[in-house]
Each structure stands twice: as structure tokens, then as C-alpha cells.
Amino acid sequence: MANNVDSRHDSLPEHAIYSKFPATIDEQLSILAARGMIIDDLPSAKRFLSENYFHRFLSYSVPFFRSVSANVSKFYLDGVKFSDVINIYEFDSKLRLLLLDAIEKIEISIKTQFINLSAKYGAHFYLSHKLFRDHKLLNDSIERLQYQMRASNDLLVNEYFAKYDNPNLPPVWVAMELLSIGQMAKWLLNLKRDEDRQTVARHYHLHYSILRAVIDNLTLIRNYSAHHARIWNRHYDFAECVCDSNNELIKDTLCISDGRIYRVLILIAYILRCIGGDKEFVMNLFDIIHKYQIDVKQMGFPDDWQAKFHGILDLAI
């Protein structure tokens, strides 16, 4: 195997060899200072970098660069402090926790609407090839579920297999307990009949394409969160949404060209409102933005963002 790797490298164009050694914490701080950052609390900065690797810190400092061009040295804006970046870092951590709590509520709700299709098609409809478009995708999803069930010690799964051996998987309301939002979405997106997909989306007064985009972006956020990755100013995709909603606020939100997290947050607040959620998500979002004095324009927020969120809370659904 080693010879094959060597021969593959021999066939590639010649490139420079990476030979940099990892910088010590003192060297890391010197790099930041040389780029114009003020190290306003040296002991605190050293403690932080001793527990958080340097390039993670750098990713949070990007909004403070004079330029992010690959061909321009990354110097910081005048007056930028180490603590400014820590402030963003801590805000992002709080935002992840807030979103994970919201995602849990939305995930359970969407799973419930999918399970409710069993009233039409039966308890094991999720295994029926005639109800799904892509049979290979369905088979892959079933195989993944079978693997998870073998590895699981879930009480309901064990009870099913203790009593039954046909069908060889439990009813949909048991199966859903083991699926992540991303796995569940594969079943939902693969439904053959548009009316079935729309039945799920209609619960939230949304076109199916919007619900699909929400699920895709919540899956991304959950994956980012699982790896403690930055989420606060990333870009999220709603490019293929068909907005036939009667809600002007949702239409306006989807028409915003800025792809950062504002649209996701508005739609989370909207879906939580649809499923009977209270004001907690929006109020907590307001609180952490205020506490950390966040420049919300870097998250794609419009000037009237507070009125938009209050508009969601005031909706009669």
C-alpha cells in the first residue's frame, strides 16, 4: 500500500512541501500582535489558547480582518482586541445551545407529522417501495436503520423483536426514535406522492420546498454543532424554495439575498410558533445578542430585525 501511495505522489505536479512547525502559545500571541490585534489580557489569552487550538481562534477572528483575500496579509482592523474575538466565540457557543434546543422540538414535530401518514398507509408504510421514488435510497436508509437497531438497546425495539419477526422492522413510530433529523429527512424527501410531502409541510403552513430547506439547514447546524464548529455567520441555502405562503413576512424573509443565518432563525421562530411554542426562543435570542453586543449585520439581519421577530410572535396561526 505504501508503494502505491508513493507512486501516486510521484505522478502529481511538484509542489512546495509544508514544513512549518506548530507555534507555541507565546508565538501565537506574537503572530496576532504582529497582525495588529491588541492582547488586552495576557494571562486570560494564554489560558484560552492552552485549551482552544489556534486555528479555531483564527476562524472566529475573520470578521475583524482588514481583508480576507488569500493574496493579502490578514491584518486586523484598528483597535481589535483578543477579548473581542472571545466575545464572538462565547456568543456562538450560546447560539449553538439555543438552536439545538429548538431543533429538538422541530425534529420531534416533523417526525410526528411523518408518522401520522401511517393512518393512511399503515404502520410499516416507510418500508413500502411503492410509496417512494428512489428505491436505492430507500434500501440504503433501511440498511442504515437495521444497523442502528442491532446496535441499539432501545426498550421499544427490544419489545417488538421479542414478540414479532414479521415485518423485520418495527412500526414507524418505533423506528423514528432511532433516526436523526437528517436520516428522517431522507424518508420524507423520498416520498413519491407530492400530496404526502405537502401533508407534512401543510402542518406548518409552508410549501414543501421551504420545509425541505429548513430541514437541510437544521441538519447542517446540528452537524456543525456536533463538531463545535462556528455557525453564527455561516451561509445557508434556500435557493430552491417555492414561496407560495400567504404569510408576507415569510415571503419577504425568503427574498433576502443574504444567505447568512437570519433566514434560518426567522423560520425556526415561525415553526416553533406553529407548533405552539412560546416566546422563549426569540427572547433568548434577543438576550444573547444584547449580552454579547453582536453586530447582527454580520448574521444577515436587516435593520428592522426586532420588528420581524416580534411579527412572528404576534402571528395568529
What features would you highlight for this structure?
317 residues, mainly alpha, 2 domains, 16 helices
Question: Would you give an account of this structure?
Answer:
It is a single chain. The protein has 317 residues and is an all-alpha fold. The protein has 2 domains: 20-80, no CATH class; 92-313, no CATH class. Helices cover 58% and strands 0% of the residues. It has 16 helices and no strands. It has helices at residues 2-10, 25-34, 42-51, 54-61, 82-115, 118-121, 135-151, 155-163, 172-175, 181-190, 194-202, 208-226, 248-255, 262-274, 280-291, 305-313. Helix 5 (82-115) crosses helix 12 and helix 5 (82-115) packs antiparallel against helix 15 (280-291). The longest helix has 34 residues, at 82-115. It is globular. The N and C termini lie far apart (62 Å).
Task: Give the helices and strands, then pairings.
Layout: H1 2-10, H2 25-34, H3 42-51, H4 54-61, H5 82-115, H6 118-121, H7 135-151, H8 155-163, H9 172-175, H10 181-190, H11 194-202, H12 208-226, H13 248-255, H14 262-274, H15 280-291, H16 305-313
Number of strands: 0
Shape: globular
**First CA to last CA: what distance?**
62 Å
The biggest beta sheet is recorded as:
none
Average predicted confidence as pLDDT:
89
The structure class reads mainly alpha
Radius of gyration: 24 Å
Unreliable parts = none
Helix content: 55-70%
Task: Output the helix-strand order.
Answer: HHHHHHHHHHHHHHHH
Strand-residue fraction? under 5%
Number of helical stretches of at least 4 residues: 16
* Domain module count: 2
